[in-house]
Amino acid sequence: MDIHAIGDFLLNLSIVTAIFCAAASVVGKWRSHGRLMLAGERAGYAVTAMVITASFLLISAFITHDYNNKYVAHYSDNNMPWYYLVASFWGGQSGSLMFWSLILAIGTGLVIRQNQQKNRDILPTVLATLMIIQVFFLGLMVFEANPFETFRVNEPPVNGRGLEPLLQNPAMTFHPPSILSGYVWFTFPFAFAVAALIHKRLDDTWIRTTRGYALISWAFLSIGNLFGGMWAYQELGWGGFWGWDPVENASLMPWFTATAYLHSVMIQERRDMLKVWNMALVMLTYFLTVFGTFLTRSGLIDSVHTFAQSDVGDYFIVFLITLTILSIGLILWRVLDGSLKSKSDVQHLMSREGVFLLNNIVLLACVFVVMFGTIGEKISAYFWQETKYTAPWFNTWMVPGGLLLLLLMGVGPLIPWRKVTKKSLVKNFLVPSMVSTGLTAWLYLADVYHLKTQVAKTYIPFNEAIEGSISWGKLFLEAELVGVYSLIGFWGVFFIFYTMLWEFYYGARVRSRSVKVPFMTAMAQLFGKNKRRYGGYLTHLGFAGLFLGFIGTGLKTERDLSFQEVGQSHILEDKQLTFKGIKFTQNREYREWFAEFELHQLNDNGSVGESLGMVRPSRRNYIGANVKLSRWTTEKDEVFMWRGNVYLALVSFNDKVQTAEVMAHFNPMLLWMWIGGGFLLLGVFVAIWPEEAKYQVFVAAQRSAGQAIDAQAGPLKPLNT
Fold first, then answer.
1. Which listed residue, 86, 529, 548, 617, has the most CB atoms within 10 A of its CB?
2. Are 115 and 128 in contact (CB under 8 A)?
3. Beta carbons within 8 Å of 292's beta carbon, 6+ residues apart
4. Using an 8 Å Cβ cutoff, are 377 and 462 in contact?
5. HSE-up of 277 (CA within 13 Å, CB side)?
6. What is the pLDDT of residues 96-146, one digit of tens each?
7. Which stretches of the chain score pLDDT less than 50?
């Protein structure tokens, strides 16, 4: 028996075993039959083992170039390196479904292992829910997109069609699996929420149990979106990292709702509030993860990800409808019997819970805008005249929402629980506001000064040179930073930087003085005493960095440059770009044509200054690829500088007469995009790490005494202080 037959057999057996697992768990729980519930758990382990084995067989088929397998032949070829062969596992429909089942199976095994004791009463229902979902995805593979389907000929192809060239990028090894993992990991909070509703276990136990799963899901979605932005920046050749593509939007929507959920559950844990709201957020987030998969694979919308589409959309529609009815029905059931009634309400909008709730509302408004813009074209075409929703439309609505979220991130840590007083409001906000206003004013004045004197623009580029004597009044009106959104953005970033850094400094100082340890030691100990709190602060710092990158994107310079002979130069900002010619190279994977340019800094008097390096954008033609869309890719190149990056994409060339057309960008503050992403992920990893038992006991004691941990104005003092 070959590996294809074994793999197909394992998939079919997994479906049968998963059905048995669900049935045994439900019946065992209903009849209080311990052995039957144990049999269900062991069946869950068996499904995990079989799906892992089947996935290993599929990966091995790619590694060994087994072109008798249709999926392997369609998404790989002999010229691909081993890491792209592994990445081809999730490069198409069948493999992505297999990857979904794999992550779900691994997570299911962990859920069984971790909850055999502490959540024994609801584990059968959780397991049954997970197995029903697993059956759906396994069924799609078996009946519609079998990754082990073979050619019905005696001799298989000698070479495959190859992976889509646009996907042959290092980010491909991280972006799709991260997004899919983010989708799958939110299945576990959903399953626990269903079990909590069914068994009327509606305290915060299920929330604390699933906090890690939700954070892992959010972390994977964050990683996936970051690497997706890097992929777009490198491969699509337009100098940006987010184009509001429908598939990009599909991964962004559950990220918004997951973010809202992670903030909202803190209110329920501390104040026993928003039970219905949190249940709705869990259900909505999981709905959007499935909806995102539907958009990616259904072919409903046009996207740069068209190479990943297939014909399984109808099945997802049925699944989504069933999911919606189930979720709404369960929540209404418990709302009507009063089980989801909260013990307290938001007392004042100017309180931490009020800020969190406003944060949630803004995030959901963003979801609505993105959803409408993503599917609005299809809706408008069906009911009336077709309307296009492009990047400018999204930016018009999303930029104000993003700025409001930015401000709320800075405000939240400064406001106490329950209600703020005028005294604490002034005390907590006066200094950060003054510092942020001063830094923003300084940045703007520096911008105007550099424009006035026509020297290097330290912070923000300008689209055209200013000649002659211009009044200061006119400069204030024409400077790029005068844009309201930019000013608000810079102010919000400075506010977050100050408040977050102050939280770290204040906490470390108090601890250093109280327990008599060096300041840096106390700083490190903060993370051991309250990882969720300080991990969250790191994440907020990361968002501030990301927003600097967003602001820079809105202020970038973009030019189309034509070079008709070797040695010709063009000016880009305060730099000179000189054409050096077209070069050719070839390897076993592709042929590549480089356009070489030398970048020089211009001096204040306009003369050519120091060389900043060579820039080599290129076009690639993949030799072994036989794909439907394109055999060519555009490979950007850039020169990295602290205040921004010079980015070139080769649009067209003629190597015989040595001419080139390039798209040139100056992207200010791009570095902050990647620095911010790093801090964001670091904060997530810190928050995921388990809390010390001592602090957990402390939190439990506060909750049982009916006290809010942060009831007083100002930050919570660290333990042992």
1. 617
2. no
3. 179, 183, 250, 251, 253, 254
4. no
5. 22
6. 899 999 999 999 999 999 888 888 889 999 999 999 999 999 999 999 889
7. 307, 451-480, 482, 625-630, 693-721
